[in-house]
Write a structure and sequence with these properties.
By secondary structure, this protein is an alpha+beta fold. The protein is built from 18 helices and 13 strands.
């Protein structure tokens, strides 16, 4: 669903404490330099540039500032990406470091941008970028792409992030949900490994029930308390969170059915931990990776990257993967979310920043961290990527090219947003989390829960439209 426009909200904020970390480790330097030929690229004033009229790296020597948390900035993938940007474009990257925002807090990078801080690159999901757009801190990139003769649609299809028909971000990677399974648990239970064809939720539950073994503390299934799980069956059935008139659609029976089904897996069928156990933290989101007693786990593609790191997540069992299950009678589908890169209005190096995010979005998946590229790949390109980059990371798991093609590169499959996207979507997500927990923990009936979600969502939509 195309994101609906909403007028800006007023924000009360305090300026976050931030730190700029130079990739060269030299701190801040005087980047001013006389340019006698008068060819300084627009937006690079005040930065060092060695641009030459015939150079294939017109922003060679320009420095851009990339907003990241300390953990992200010091990660090996980020370091390799910075080196690749330098190699391909000549652009230097500095980091603008901010702490991770806590639950309920405003994004600290957004706070800094609203205060006028000069930042050149930010990375967020489309839903998160909507908040930046509402705060009027994002730079449209259509003119930058046109000036560069860069056809974004040809490279990324419909994944360009747009608000009111203007482009504001390009996508780098897709996080596509999969079914992960522990082959050892299947072997111990003498149950054949499941196959991708016809892998429905009905078959998933049936398989989990066979794997479940309370005496041996074996769970057949695991899904965390991510709010997307509450309504994912409705999403996969094509039911919109909004009615045609823009009001909430949570009174559609599909949403009640989805919530009832999800919470029944743990509370009634007991094939996975119940809602109270999940809420208490007894079974954290990474239980499948660290415990070794869970048969199947359905979650985002980032899990595959995590499981490929046996130093962080040591295991003595082989991993199997399948596409995400889908409701019987519906077209095969998977939930997904996209990581995108945008340029703030406060950027002093917009053209150089555009060159840098082009490099990130086109090349991040090639660094060998198990990413699913958002750029359009041909079937042959996808297979070559799997063979050269993905399979070596799982050499002990006997995974195949076909496994990854069916899970991540099946062009006949529907890929649906894992998040509700539209007017007041962030607030609605919070409402759904709160109300869903009350229902899952037995504090509220399903009927009262869905009525509360519907009423509160409509109020949030009304408030957003009135601002």
């Amino acid at each position: 669903m195309r994101l609906k426009s909403a007028l800006k909200r007023g924000f009360a904020f305090s300026l976050a404490t931030v730190m700029v970390l130079s990739t060269a480790g030299c701190g801040k330097s005087d980047n001013t330099k006389d340019n006698s030929n008068g060819n300084t690229p627009t937006g690079t004033e005040g930065t060092e540039s060695s641009q030459k009229p015939n150079s294939d790296k017109p922003y060679d020597g320009v420095t851009v500032k990339w907003a990241l948390t300390d953990n992200a900035a010091t990660g090996s993938e980020t370091k390799e990406m910075v080196d690749l940007i330098k190699e391909k474009t000549g652009i230097n990257v500095e980091f603008y470091i901010t702490p991770t925002s806590k639950a309920g807090e405003m994004d600290k990078v957004l706070v800094s941008l609203m205060a006028g801080e000069a930042i050149d690159i930010i990375g967020r999901t489309p839903l998160q970028l909507e908040e930046f757009y509402k705060a009027a801190v994002l730079e449209p990139i259509d003119d930058l792409a046109k000036a560069d003769n860069y056809d974004m649609s040809a490279i990324y299809g419909d994944k360009i992030v747009k608000f009111e028909d203007k482009s504001f971000a390009m996508p780098a990677e897709k996080d596509i949900w999969l079914t992960y399974y522990n082959k050892k648990i299947f072997d111990d239970a003498n149950i054949p490994y499941p196959t991708a064809e016809g892998w429905t939720w009905e078959k998933y539950v049936e398989t989990a029930q066979k794997l479940n073994n309370p005496e041996k503390n074996i769970w057949g299934s695991f899904m965390s308390d991510d709010v997307a799980c509450n309504y994912m069956l409705a999403t996969q059935k094509g039911v919109s969170a909004y009615k045609a008139d823009g009001t909430a659609n949570f009174d559609d029976p599909a949403f009640a059915d989805a919530a009832k089904w999800f919470f029944s897996l743990g509370n009634d069928l007991k094939i996975q931990p119940g809602c109270i156990d999940l809420a208490s933290g007894t079974y954290p989101y990474n239980s499948f990776m660290v415990n070794g007693n869970i048969g199947m786990y359905v979650y985002g593609g980032w899990v595959a990257s995590a499981l490929s790191d046996k130093t962080k997540y040591p295991r003595d069992w082989e991993l199997g993967i399948l596409p995400m299950p889908y409701p019987e009678g519906e077209d095969p589908s998977s939930l997904t979310i996209t990581s995108c890169y945008a340029i703030p209005k406060t950027s002093k190096n917009k053209e150089a920043a555009f060159e840098a995010i082009k490099t990130i979005c086109e090349n991040k998946y090639t660094l060998g961290y198990g990413r699913v590229p958002a750029k359009i790949l041909t079937e042959d390109e996808a297979k070559t990527y799997i063979e050269s980059s993905l399979l070596p990371k799982f050499k002990d798991d006997n995974l195949t090219v076909d496994d990854f093609m069916k899970g991540w590169f099946d062009n006949s499959r529907l890929y649906l947003s894992e998040k509700i996207m539209g007017t007041a979507d962030t607030t609605i997500g919070q409402i759904y989390t709160e109300e869903g927990q009350l229902y899952g923990q037995g504090q509220k009936s399903l009927e009262d829960t869905m009525k509360s979600i519907q009423d509160r969502a409509n109020e949030a939509i009304k408030e957003a439209n009135e601002q």
